Amino acid sequence: MKLIPISAGNFHCDGGALFGVIPKKLWSKQYPADADNFTKLALRCLLVDTGDRKILIEAGIGNHYPEKHFENNGYKPGNHLEDSLLQNGYSVNDITDVFFTHLHWDHCTGAVKTKNEKLVPVFPNANYWCSKIQWEHAKISNPREKAAYHTDILNFFAESGKLRLIETEGGLFPGFSVRFFHGHTPGLAIPFIQAEEKTFVYTSDLVPTTANVPLLWIAAYDLEPVKTMYEKEIFLAEAAAKNYILFFEHDFYTECCTVLQTEKGLIVQNRYQLSELNEYK
């Protein structure tokens, strides 16, 4: 098995939104912001190459939005995803599966491209995977979360004949299992990847950055922050006990870390680049 970080570019969000009720005086010491209070975020996908399958976790943003939208979100359009795959020796045709942790715009809309005012697949040979809970929720959503979904692209997935809905937790591919969490958005599907003796967890928006590891440091984007708090507490305690390697989609500064349980709570223990763990590159 090979695990390879794939970049879909970078963007930004408001620091207050990333850390919720935590005062800026505290969070800015752990995760910097610019003069406009924007924090840099990565769109870091993960390619899981099992030999038979080339599974891409997440797909970034794509090219569908007005220039003003890109500007407001600190995103520079480009072929980031395709270029990153090529730099790592893969093409879009190699991808057999695209796994979405959820269907918010910054996680899935890059799997489709707008070309000559039509939507076309970026990965012509791939199936699309997400939880059935999230799929059903995306269709009804709520006024607060509605802007996070791109209806035309979700309809494209549905009409492609390649949408695969995950109904239960557990194994999905060899060495690749899924668990559901519901505080950020219903049916957030988190991949747990077993590579020899190590377990890698793609944290998505359950733990967006290393600075969100402390229990109460929860993003304002979460629909049910108290539920997130309990889910995160249970998950991170397990991660510390079992020495999971957490892989961050959005942390601009850190790809991976382990966590440690202390008397004062859970903290970041060691930080890694995935390339430092040579057997997985």
Name a few traits of the molecule:
single chain; 281 residues; alpha/beta; Metallo-beta-lactamase, Chain A; seven-stranded mixed sheet; 8 helices
Structure in words:
The protein is α/β, with parallel strands linked by helices. It has a single domain, classed as Metallo-beta-lactamase, Chain A, CATH 3.60.15.10. Helices cover 23% and strands 32% of the residues. It has eight helices and 15 strands. The strands form three sheets. It has a seven-stranded mixed sheet with strand order 9-10-11-12-13-14-15. It has a six-stranded mixed sheet with strand order 1-2-3-4-7-8. The longest helix is centred in the last third of the chain and has 18 residues, at 225-242. The chain is globular, with a radius of gyration of 18 Å.
CATH topology: Metallo-beta-lactamase, Chain A
Biggest sheet strand line-up: 9-10-11-12-13-14-15
Helix content: 10-25%
Distance between the termini: 9 Å
What structural class do helix, strand and pairing data support? alpha/beta
DSSP helical segment count: 8
The strand count comes to 15
Q: Report the principal-axis shape.
A: globular
For the record, the count of structural domains works out to 1
CATH class: Alpha Beta
Rounded radius of gyration (Å)? 18 Å
Oligomer: single chain
Topology summary:
Elements lengths: L1 E13 H5 L4 H7 L7 E12 L4 E4 L9 H6 L7 H8 L9 E3 L5 H4 L3 E4 L2 E4 L5 E5 H9 L10 H9 L3 E4 L3 E4 L2 E6 L6 E8 L2 E5 L22 H18 L2 E3 L8 E7 L2 E8 L9
Parallel strand pairs: 3-4, 4-7, 7-8, 12-13
Antiparallel strand pairs: 1-2, 2-3, 5-6, 9-10, 10-11, 11-12, 13-14, 14-15
